[in-house]
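hey can u check if this looks right to u? its 306 residues, i copy pasted from the old doc so theres a chance i mangled smth
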Amino acid sequence: MFYFLSTHPGEVAAVLTAFSWSVAVVFFRLAGENSSSLAFNLFKSAFATVLFFLILPFAEWGQMTSLKSLLFPVLTQKEWVLLTVSGILGVTLGDLFFLMAIKRIGASLNALISCIYSPLVMLFAFLFLDETMPLIGVIGGAFVVTAVIVAGNTHSIEGVDRNRLASGIFYAVLSEIAMVAAVIMIRDIFREQSVYWVLSFRFFVGTFFMLPLLLSKKVRTNLKSMLKPVKQRNWIILGSLFGPFLATILWLLGFKYTLAGKAAVYNQLSTIFIFILAAIFLKEKLTTKRVIALILGVFGAVLVSL
């Protein structure tokens, strides 16, 4: 185990990302549908930002020459812009779309939609990082799209309002696009810079652009009411710990130490983990069509990796 960890750190980090994120999704779902997505996203992002800045000096202790060099490394103007845009896309928008999706369609169906993650990473890596995407990858992408269609038809049969279903799938797809774009655009930066600093900066930017929400009385009221029930507050804190904080660290470490496409496929294991955890802890049904959709999605993701 330790040998594999030392020789394949990127692959190990990518698998652990999938598990950690799956646990976070269950916690977020347990927090309840009544939580405001805007208030929820603001809290969890601010919570993760504080944690990132707390661990940053310890993570970079051996490399730190001064506080200024730790907080403001030497970057080009383009790199600063890319990091800022990445923070807005991934934290301000991507996480918000994810929360809006999971409230509408649940953890299991959202996990199925997330099967588009691997093909998207392959496509973006092909377009912007010059990583090759052979024919088998295109075929795998087709399997993933088919899985999403089957999943959508399955959920509508179960009696979910079609408008709610459509909007949930729409936000889930937007979330995946935002997440993938956010990481691909800064891949070269976090391969040269500290992952912990990159994450601290991205979450600071993402949270900063959400702060104007506090001017809204409705958001402030939702934030207070969301955190008042002790049980609900605990679920939100645990989800923020396993998701935006731990899973995001592992996510970038995976992309840093292995190919983007390979990391994406290992990340896709979250689909399986979420299905299992949602069935156990959320009592979400594992129907035959959902299992078929899961098999199609995972098989497509594996084809993409080949």
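Residues 2-305 form one domain.
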